Amino acid sequence: MIRSVPARFRARFLATCALAFPTIAPTWAHAQAADGTEADNEITIYAPIRDAQEAALKEQRDADNLVNIIASDTVGRFPDQNSAAALARLPAVAVQRDQGQERYIQVRGAPNRWTSVSFDGVPVIGVDEGGSSRAFRFDAVPAVILNSIAVNKSLTPDLPADAIVAQIDLRTASPFDHRGFNIQGDLGYGWMGLGGGEQRQASLRASWSNDSFGVIAGLSHYRRDQVTDNREFSYDGDGILESFDARNYLLRRENNGAFVGLEWQPSAGNRIFAKAVFSEFKDDEQRNQYTFLLGDAISGTRGATGGDLVGVPVRSSTEFGKYRTRNYINTLGGDHEFGEGWQASWRVNYTRTENTTMLPIVLQTMTSETQRPSMTYDLSDPDLPIISLYSTVPGATEGSFVRGDALATLDQSAFGFNLALPYAGDTTSDSWTFKGDVTRELDGWTFKAGAQYDDRKIKGAVIGGSTIYLSPLLAAIGADDLPAGDYLTDKDWDTGMPLGITLKYIDNRRLNRDLGAALDALQAAGLYDPADNIPATNYYDIGEKLLSGYAMAKRDIGFGQIIFGLRVEHMKQSINGFIDVDGTVEPLGVSHSYTDFFPSINAKFDLSDDLVLRGSFQRGISRPSFGAIRTGASINDTVTPGTISGGNPNLKPEYTWGADVSLEYYLPGGGVLSLGAFHRWVDNVLYESMTIVGDDTYDTDGVDRSGYQFTSQFNGDKGRLYGVELSYLQQWSFLPSPLDGFGFQGNVALLDGSFDTPDRQNAPFPGTSKTIVNASLFYEKYGISARVSYQWRDDWADTLGGLGLGAGGDQYRKAYGNLDVSLRYAINENLTLFADLTNLTNETYVGYQGDRNHPTEVEQVGRRYLGGIRFSF
Predict the structure, then answer these.
(1) 640-to-637, 689, 707 alpha-carbon distances in Å
(2) Is this prediction's pTM over 0.70?
(3) 245 and 289 in contact (C-beta within 8 Å)?
(4) What confidence tens digit (pLDDT) does each residue in 578-590 have?
């Protein structure tokens, strides 16, 4: 595999590693001095892996609720480029990948919308492409800007209630983590196993502090040039292959981060700080796609294991898409101790999140029958069709066609320009948060109360675009009609999947530029208006004002503690958009106001110095996505009954009651063995389907549309999610030297659950694998830190299909496992060499419909190799 990488990449990689090799000496790494303070129940991590691990476990043990902690130094021992990958090492946490890159996390197998996120204790909401989810995109947050990550699996009243299975706090670094001047960072270079594209990363963090004042700033960058190999399939009503796509993507993905912090500690127990964090995810994708429309062949046979067809239409789709996600997070806050047993904290935060998509798609087809290839195809392996192509020639009778001579490959220059789809989407959220808390300790009791106000404005549009038939328009103004042959390169697809033919890349960048110029010419001629790219019904403007207050008490009972309290949240929501009534666009606004009560109780019992029993009971909420609750809809009055499709502004939030119990045994040498169980009872579960409108929401101009068919997202009935979690972490210091450097970190989660709708019972929750396994064998000694890590999850439902959620239309994802290796060698306390080898199993990600003989998507991204040096002074 290494020999297949271009020589210039291998040379850069070796040069990066060689920078430090002349300085290697037989010195052991040792811990930097730990000199810090504890504030807000946070443990600042200063030391290498074992000390970082012990400090994180100490915070976990002392916590008031059920929580898992991962420290930044632990993250550095894994090949984790973003925060989603780092979180996937924790118990019952699975990761959702997009083309191999970790994007979302699913705690306890639940839908990602059931997990909320905060930065340094201040909640932030996510805006995905088109507002399709409130889920936070972790691929926009580089792991290197974080100091630690906490996954709160049970809630106390001082945490936002918008978290059914978990609340995740991403914690950034403090200048007081290191006294005096400190600078640390890394440089890395590597390549991708599929296609040989480069990887590169760099980060730099500098801080200075004295006894009362500190400043910190940092930058991070990661980029990789990736090939994604992809096949996609569709089937007819009899389950016979109707079409399949051969796809290959050239990606450049990039993560950038920057942060700065100022902190003043005028006296013991008092601090004021200001932090600003910027993070972004950039994705430029050149997509090459050929769709073989088997079901539209002139003649021939199709079967479950193969086919023999004459005159198969082929459609070409090319695009150069640009996707951007950016977060701007700014926080001013303070923590204070005054009087006897009094504490107070306050936060003011402004967060802006942006998600933009530019996706101009060019579609081309073979127009004449004799241009269309005839073909045979073999489905011995249903994931990987093998095709043979032939020419199509006139038959013996007029109007008939038969198979001709064998063809070496598809004539990619024979496609005629058809249409363009300038798809786009743009969603932004602007949020202000004001938060204050007061704590009082008195005679074995700790009382805490606080309030929070969130003011959010979300503007966006569901991704969409107008269909532009450019051929006649271009001809009308004398412009070139972008022939496919002009953009064909001489480079073969980089692929690890057999197809039977070889295809060449299209120059999508140049095609995209020429398409833009053609559209500009059409606009100048008055034949095209870019304002029409996104239909008015796709837009939405949503305002949310959330006022929260809570009160809680903690009672120390000698051998443990009990925490109980109540959180109250009042939401005022305004939803504005447009409806399209038979071609006439009209505005529509809907408002909601509701108050919810969220009681909770958390108990912790110290059965011994090392054995802790926990239990909790709580109520939580999950609010629908912005795109789902938009008022925008298309209305058709010309059919009977009339139809409406679009958003559903009357969606109710999902509510849950939840119970947790865990038994934690803290082992010598910074280890833990834990067993936990949980259960969530959920009302108003969200799902996609069709129903009757049932009210006057869409009535205009005296037209009663309450009886129209409405296709959208709806609230189902009750559901439940439950499972058990087993986790073990320990360095085996009881073994004789040098074996005492070995250790193990692993966890397994066994999960299950379902929900009901008016049309279906026991539908699976999308995203819920019944088994999730994370396992790492590590060695930490003599300056060596080596880990072999394996992650596995079994099959899960990805999309529930069919109106009324018919089970036969459900789409699933096949189980997969990822094997990673990370190597670290500390030359001394200032310099460490590293090498990360990722996805060594070269995993293939497979989606299927109903059963494994009907794959819908097969995708492979290849292995990744990265090496470099870390430094700290």
Answers:
(1) 8, 19, 10
(2) yes
(3) yes
(4) 887 777 888 989 9
